[in-house]
């Protein structure tokens, strides 16, 4: 069996998001005053076999080992439905 | 009123995702044979006021003007609940 988990990585609330600020400025200057703020983030769609290890454990381990910089970033994840 | 839309940007199915492949290889070599594949993407959390323009229209316009490279990428979006 294979399941898919989506891990969302974002800056911590306390960390300035320079890319998001630059994109917000650019979008507003393109004529979108209705846009108030844009924040950016990454996501990882992880296809995995939960037979030997739980999804929660795998997600936690690979986030700590590789995917997330805990000095600046935080993450959460959700299971994806099969059709996505 | 302010609403929040999350725009997901991913490579098209037909486009090779080199970063995803590199991350998959790295995770597997760190001792995670349970991970079969990882794909990466970006997302944009857009806070906007839909009074003058619909969310769908704003999302479509800023995706075309700035956020998405339609040669390589595709996007979809969803509305976020307030607590997220």
TrEMBL record, chains A, B:
GO cellular component, one term: cytoplasm
Protein's recorded name: Phosphoribosylformylglycinamidine synthase subunit PurS
Subcellular location: Cytoplasm
Organism encoding this protein: Liquorilactobacillus satsumensis DSM 16230 = JCM 12392
Coiled-coil features, chain-numbered ranges: none
Organism placement in taxonomy: Bacteria, Bacillati, Bacillota, Bacilli, Lactobacillales
E.C. numbers: 6.3.5.3
Gene Ontology terms: biological process: 'de novo' IMP biosynthetic process
Pathway in which this enzyme or protein is active: Purine metabolism; IMP biosynthesis via de novo pathway; 5-amino-1-(5-phospho-D-ribosyl)imidazole from N(2)-formyl-N(1)-(5-phospho-D-ribosyl)glycinamide: step 1/2
One Pfam entry name: PurS
Reactions mediated catalytically: N(2)-formyl-N(1)-(5-phospho-beta-D-ribosyl)glycinamide + L-glutamine + ATP + H2O = 2-formamido-N(1)-(5-O-phospho-beta-D-ribosyl)acetamidine + L-glutamate + ADP + phosphate + H(+)
């Amino acid at each position: 069996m294979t399941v898919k988990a989506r891990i969302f990585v974002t800056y911590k609330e306390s960390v300035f998001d320079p890319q998001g600020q630059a994109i917000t400025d650019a979008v507003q200057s393109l004529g979108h005053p209705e846009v108030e703020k844009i924040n950016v983030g990454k996501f990882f769609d992880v296809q995995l076999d939960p037979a030997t290890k739980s999804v929660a454990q795998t997600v936690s381990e690979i986030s700590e080992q590789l995917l997330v910089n805990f000095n600046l970033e935080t993450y959460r994840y959700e299971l994806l439905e099969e059709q996505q």
